[in-house]
Design brief:
alpha/beta; 4-stranded mixed sheet; about 30% strand; about 130 residues; single chain
């Protein structure tokens, strides 16, 4: 089994689409229902209007706070972490944790997209796919 789509709920589709187009450097694909998709390496990133996604899942759209889910992107170097964090901030992300070394030997930054989704930007010098 592999993850094929990561779907993020958004309260402002235009803002989220502009953010991810800027950050990823690619144009989104929109489907008939208004969901926006970005092709990634081996998977898709989808943006879905928050109320619509909650209704589709059968949950309350008013949920908030830390949801206990984060997304990680493994990068090729510490410099790539720094550059990606800077690009994300320029695109509208909030820098939650500035880029820097971590106790296990990697280099990490944490950002929040305009809807508050937490992303870890990470370089793991041991070459593992996750920190």
């Amino acid at each position: 089994m592999r993850i094929s789509v990561v779907t993020l709920a958004t309260s402002d589709m235009a803002r989220a689409r502009a953010f991810y187009e800027s950050l990823l450097g690619r144009t989104a694909v929109k489907d008939r229902s208004g969901v926006v998709y970005f092709r990634l390496e081996g998977a898709w990133l989808a943006l879905y209007p928050r109320a619509d996604l909650a209704r589709y899942c059968g949950v309350d759209a008013a949920g908030g706070g830390f949801e206990g889910v984060t997304l990680s992107v493994n990068l090729a170097s510490a410099g790539d972490v720094d550059a990606t964090a800077a690009r994300a901030r320029a695109a509208g992300a909030t820098l939650v944790r500035p880029p820097g070394p971590v106790d296990w030997g990697g280099h990490v930054a944490w950002i929040a997209d305009p809807d508050g989704h937490l992303w870890e930007l990470v370089f793991n010098p041991r070459g593992k796919s996750a920190s």
